[in-house]
Design goal:
Layout lengths: L1 H16 L11 E5 L22 E6 L8 E5 L12 E4 L1 H9 L4 E3 L2 H7 L16 H9 L2 E7 L4 E2 L2 H10 L9 E2 L6 E2 L8 E8 L3 E12 L26 H6 L9
Parallel strand pairs: 6-11
Antiparallel strand pairs: 1-2, 3-4, 3-5, 7-9, 8-10, 10-11
């Protein structure tokens, strides 16, 4: 008898060590009979159901139904979303994983809206001009801009050259927002081929992005053109000015720029 009790206890302890996941699933499936049974009169015996009466069509599946957006109040600036005190509407998984869990937002209630609302008089100095300004700065600073200049005629790089190069790369920047180095860059000079310099792009008169630019000489005569270098933006380049050497080494993997 005692031996049986010991075996039972041993068996129960082994079962308790197994990892069993018990989780409720809140799923709802709305079905509709494809062939409804005939109606019957009051106090009449219902007719026998046939096999076709058990064929159903799916009307709604809550597991794939799109859930409504979740409104939250930001407690800090979040790049690409908004500033402190803004009420934003996002997908539930995005709001929960990227904002609520890290503590960057709280659920929208009248109390939280009043707590985190920032009035114009009490508002701190803005660090970001918009939610997407910093993202734009990051994109521009990860770009290697090919500045294509004429190989046969004299030139001096001006803001409109950078504007045209940025437009070819998919960025539309006004000339007034482009600041060139103080030292003029003139040519043609093959010693400056593929050398790198920095220009500054000002976004919304607040954020500044330092864009890496590389000089490429081009000729209208096919016989005078320099050999094409495959994926030249992945190669190391010497700085045009000595002060840019340290910045060039700190750069990360660049993006492709059309030239």
């Amino acid at each position: 008898m005692l031996g049986n009790v010991v075996k039972m206890l041993g068996t129960s302890s082994l079962c308790s060590t197994q990892s069993v996941l018990v989780q409720s699933s809140r799923n709802t499936f709305v079905l509709k009979r494809r062939f409804p049974p005939n109606l019957y009169k009051k106090n009449q015996k219902p007719g026998k159901l046939r096999g076709r009466h058990f064929v159903y069509d799916l009307v709604e599946d809550t597991t794939i139904t799109k859930k409504p957006n979740l409104e939250v109040v930001l407690t800090a600036f979040v790049e690409g979303i908004g500033s402190k005190g803004d009420v934003v509407s996002l997908k539930p998984n995005v709001a929960y994983n990227k904002l609520l869990l890290p503590g960057l937002a709280v659920y929208k209630t009248p109390e939280t809206v009043a707590k985190y609302a920032t009035e114009k008089d009490e508002k701190e100095v803005e660090v970001h001009s918009s939610a997407y300004a910093q993202r734009t700065v990051n994109k521009l600073e990860s770009l290697i801009l090919a500045v294509v200049m004429n190989k046969d005629h004299a030139w001096t790089i001006e803001p409109w050259h950078i504007k045209a190069s940025l437009r070819k790369a998919g960025y539309y920047v006004p000339e007034s927002a482009i600041t060139l180095p103080e030292t003029p860059i003139t040519g043609p000079d093959l010693l400056k081929q593929n050398k790198e310099f920095y220009c500054t792009v000002t976004i919304n008169n607040l954020e500044k992005a330092r864009v890496r630019c590389r000089i490429h000489h081009w000729s209208t005569e096919p016989s005078e053109r320099l050999p094409y270098v495959f994926e030249h933006w992945k190669l190391d380049a010497e700085p045009l000015f000595g002060s840019d050497a340290a910045d060039s080494r700190k750069s990360t993997e660049p993006q492709k720029s059309k030239d």
